[in-house]
Amino acid sequence: xxxxxxxxxxxxxxxxxxxxxxxxxLPAAILLLATIVVWEAVVRIFAISAFIIPAPSEIAQSLxxxxxxxxxxxxxxxxxxxxxxxxxxxxxxxxALVIVRFDWLGRALYPLVVLFQNVPKVALAPIFILWFxxxxxxxxxLILVIAFFPVxxxxxxxxxxxxxxxxxxxxxxxxxxxxxxxxxxxxxSLPNLMAGTKIAATLSVIGAxxxxxxxxxxxxxxxIQFASTQLDTALVFAALLLVSVLGxxxxxxxxxxxxxxxxxxxxxxxx
Length: 271
Prior knowledge:
Helices cover 83% and strands 0% of the residues. It is mainly α. Mean pLDDT is 84; it is low at 16-22. It is found in: Cell membrane.
């Protein structure tokens, strides 16, 4: 008899978790399904050419027919995104630490970082191709210049928003600037940092595709360009669908990492 309340409590928690999970994705699934149905109906009713806007069924057929090619391209692009994202996070964190730890260098470096962020990244793609060739390096470089900024900015915001009284307390006990940085500022900045990494994850997808547009022999960006030259709009949409899936996957992977590393951070509420 004593096990019954425990069992009921476990079942209640399971039902509550399932209900919360269902409530989070069900509205999006319904909206997506409705959009697909309306899209298909509009294309069929108005007899829109597949060259202009293919029906979802035609995109699905292209996805199945070119599955092996698209999966190979997806793996290539996913590898570029992952490597570029990791490099961007490391560089973004390093820049933020330098700006906060060395005040004189921070005052000189921060305006240059902001100025560099305003340079059109698409214009950098051919320069990177010229410098680094057609391999992995120009894609990683382009992802880096696109995605490091939100990491740096978010971490800076977190480290600079520490309670002044806490900093005064650390100074009163003789803590060095480096000790204050790593024991107070960095832990305090983790929620902001993880928010920045989620933004960087989605920007990394954009960077990889732009890099492949500029020069590549494989990847989803290359498939999109090749399909465009062949007027295969359905294949273009199929590749775009996989790009979107990659973006969603990397975003939610960053969110899972956030929940593991900083479970106390505020979460987005659908209520």
